[in-house]
Sequence to fold (447 residues):
Amino acid sequence: MRITLTVNGTRREVDGVWEGESLLYALRERMGLPGSKNACEQGECGSCTVYLDGLPVCSCLVAAGQADGREVTTVEGLSADGELRPVQQAFLACGAVQCGFCTPGLIVSTHDLLERNPQPSDPEIREALAGNLCRCTGYEKIMDAVRLASRAQERAS
Amino acid sequence: MEFLAPTTWADALAAKAACPGALPVTGGTDVLVEINFDRRRPPALLDLTRVAELRDWAPDRGRIRLGAAVTYSRVIDELATALPGLAMAARTIGSPQIRNRGTVGGNLGAASPAGDSHPPLLAADAVVEVASAARGVREVPVAQFYTGVKTNALAPDELIAAVLVAPPRGPQQFCKIGTRNAMVIAVSAFGFALHPDRRAVGTGIGSAAPTPRRAEAAAEFLAGELDAAGLWESRGELPDGLAREFGHRVRAAAAPIDDVRGSAAYRLHSLSVMARRAATWAWNDYRRAA
Fold:
């Protein structure tokens, strides 16, 4: 089937979509957007997190057909003209990236957290990132990165 | 596989009647897992996310009518006062990403004994509104909705329209045991409600029987003891040992199995502890509300 949706601000028409296919598969394999990662395919790990109509969701659990006519923002859509956002810079600066597989999902979840709550407490950070698993860092450097991004955004505003 | 995407409730019911094997999907947090892992290949997916009637809640003749496709995030944000037990349960579900998609209607459709919505719906005497194109609307008390492991009372041509819940007349509680605080399928769960207007107690057991179920005898015992001691009126302290005895009787209502998430023995033990705590917390809330 064909689906038409807006991805990172651009209208996309995608043909040949299988009716049982996930939005994640369509993004990676049909639209050339491999930023969202495919790991657990059951909503446990959060590495496929994207915005769907403004809300962070696991794209592996959205049927591609359900995204027809909707607006999707992936991690690729969070940096404008190759310029990294404060959240992305903070992950680099803090060493919150090791193997990097969980990073895109964590970037999207952190971006959403700081949009809703610019100065989160540590328990609020842990709660907001509870659906994103990292098996490398032990989370401490991720916590550092979120705190740094929060401070950087505060200074910039 | 077909992909059916009706935009009205009438079209959704007609689609289900024409293709009874179509699998309804809203948040996809259960359905897409089964598709991704090749466990299920229904003849059609019936996407209900475009049916506006399912996406809202509203007061309706003295009850809250919660559309089947209202997400857990919205239950938490908008219904914490009107549906306190359900909102407490919703906060324990999955992660922010899952709560942004998962729905109470989906939980009922999946009818897993471990679904977190079920204990608070049982404790609050919720009613499930289902509908078909041929026979119209019928209301099923939630305790009769669960018919077996992952099966429910829906006919093949029926869809879940809404859940109807009376506003709380007393405190409600929800407890859940899992191995961590997020992304957990319940090892065991318990929902509790005080109904002082009719001197009754509501209970719901999760993950400790083939279906979600009530602890009827335990609820009648506790309500009767409170009545006999005049405590519904006096709002006095719970007598020594009453909450503990209630916990033992809740445990007696369960029929758990050993599985990968926990042993039957642990489920029984944790249920008696959760029931004791939930009753104590709710009673203390009832006393403070005087």
Q: What stands out?
A: Chain A has a mean pLDDT of 96. The beta strands of chain A are 3-7, 10-14, 49-52, 55-58, 71-73. Chain A touches chain B at residues 1, 18-20, 22, 41-44, 46, 49, 55-58, 60-63, 65-66, 68, 109, 112, 127-128, 130-132 (CB under 8 Å). The radius of gyration of chain A is 15 Å.
